[in-house]
Amino acid sequence: MTRMERDVVIVGAGACGLVAANRLKEAGVSVVVLEARDRVGGRLHTDASSGALLELGGQWISPDQTALSETVAQLGLETFARYREGESVYVGPDGAAKRFTGDIFPASATTESEIERMIAVLDGLTAEIDPDAPWEHPRARELDGITWRGFLEQLSDDEEARANVALFTAEAMLTKPSHSFSALQSLLMAASAGSFSNLVDADFILDRRVVGGLQQVPLRLAEALGDDVVLDSPVRRITWGDDGVTVEADGDLTVVARRVVLAVPPNLYDRIDYVPTLPLRRHVMHQHLSLGLVIKIHAVYDEPFWRADGLSGTAFSPYLPVHEAYDNSNHGDPRGILVGFASDTRADALLAMDPETRKAAVLDSLAHYYGERARTPAIYFESDWGSEEWTRGAYAASFDMGGLERFGADLRTPVGPIHWASSDLAGAGYQHVDGAIRMGRWVADRVLSALAPVPA
């Protein structure tokens, strides 16, 4: 049996947990980070096992993500812009592939005008939402009591316009069907990015990448902690009380500490036994949080052939299994890489297929966007985080209907010596690495305050 004593134990070696650990260590607090996986990074994973460097998890940096940009600069990492020269492709309900430039998908003049009107209305409403406290909006209960689909149906009678606007937060970001979460949850997603227009603008939200992969952020943060990061150590039990915590993990490891930070997705909280049990409200709240489902598809070609055809690589369709795709070619690599996404019920349908049938369906979508050459990649790879043991979904947790207004204010509230932090709980940067970093800083400061001696 291995027994450790620390001031703070952090569960999860993703960006949030590692940022918190470094901040605490710099303040003179002893820490240890326990990670269930055999690697650090959490939902960041840069993998080269296929023969090409592929970003299996998070990868992009947008201009509003200042916490991530600062961290990347501090760690000495280089960034490069996503390729976006040329025309984008949209496949509408008629199945025809149409080229376009700008943010609005090419449809009839009436539908394009309706999309622009809806975005303007949503921008106005989003501006009223505090991403750190959306439940405080005067209409919070009303907005959390209607589904995103129902809200858009009230907003417009144009079915194609609704399908495209729904894509930006439902399929693309929350990775759930638009009838399964509220309008308030969707507006939080937009508010966390600065505006609804920012979600619409792929050149904004998917702006830059890190040379060599975004997982270098947690890798370098872990290097600074050295032996205070312990891998292959799933936490099984937390015994807690006024005097602190005893954390038990696989490998016959026990850590006694004054505080513990759970820096993992909320859907994993209940895989730990708590002694005594957590308060009833906390247990009920966890039952109303869940992750969505998405398959991230990587197709590597000998060259980025779509560029010679005048295409940027950016493609969208609410009507195909792969609802969006981008040029994801690596810095300094002459090969072309396309990355595509299939989420919510699209992912359900694809995962019900055998692997070869699924691959054919995915490549059919890519061929619809880019032409027949897209059917024959040199490397084909799928990332399915729903099947990953220590994630079980993507990209982040969201509430079911009514849950955000009902429970949101308690999401980050400590239970005795137990603190909660992850990108899932962020306001600005919600469900992004930027939010993970912000939450890591935030929870470290709260822990430091809790550890500070009480003035006489």
Lay out the secondary structure.
Blueprint: E1 2-5, E2 8-11, H1 15-26, E3 31-34, E4 46-47, E5 54-55, H2 66-74, E6 79-81, E7 87-91, E8 97-100, H3 109-126, H4 140-144, H5 148-155, H6 159-174, H7 183-192, H8 196-200, H9 202-205, E9 208-210, H10 216-225, E10 229-230, E11 235-241, E12 244-249, E13 253-257, E14 259-262, E15 273-275, H11 280-287, E16 289-292, E17 294-301, H12 305-308, E18 311-316, E19 324-327, E20 336-343, H13 344-351, H14 355-370, E21 379-384, E22 394-399, H15 403-407, E23 418-420, H16 433-451
Parallel strand pairs: 1-13, 2-3, 2-14, 3-10, 7-18, 11-15, 14-23
Antiparallel strand pairs: 4-5, 6-9, 7-8, 11-12, 12-13, 16-22, 17-20, 17-21, 18-19, 19-20
Helix pairs in contact: 1-10, 1-16, 2-16, 3-6, 3-7, 5-6, 5-7, 6-7
Family: Belongs to the flavin monoamine oxidase family.
Keywords: Oxidoreductase
Domain Amine oxidase: 16-448
Descriptive notes:
This protein is α/β, with parallel strands linked by helices and 456 residues long. It has helices at 15-26, 66-74, 109-126, 140-144, 148-155, 159-174, 183-192, 196-200, 202-205, 216-225, 280-287, 305-308, 344-351, 355-370, 403-407, 433-451; strands at 2-5, 8-11, 31-34, 46-47, 54-55, 79-81, 87-91, 97-100, 208-210, 229-230, 235-241, 244-249, 253-257, 259-262, 273-275, 289-292, 294-301, 311-316, 324-327, 336-343, 379-384, 394-399, 418-420. A seven-stranded mixed β-sheet has the order 8-7-18-19-20-17-21. A hairpin with a 2-residue loop joins strand 11 (235-241) and strand 12. It is globular, with a radius of gyration of 22 Å.
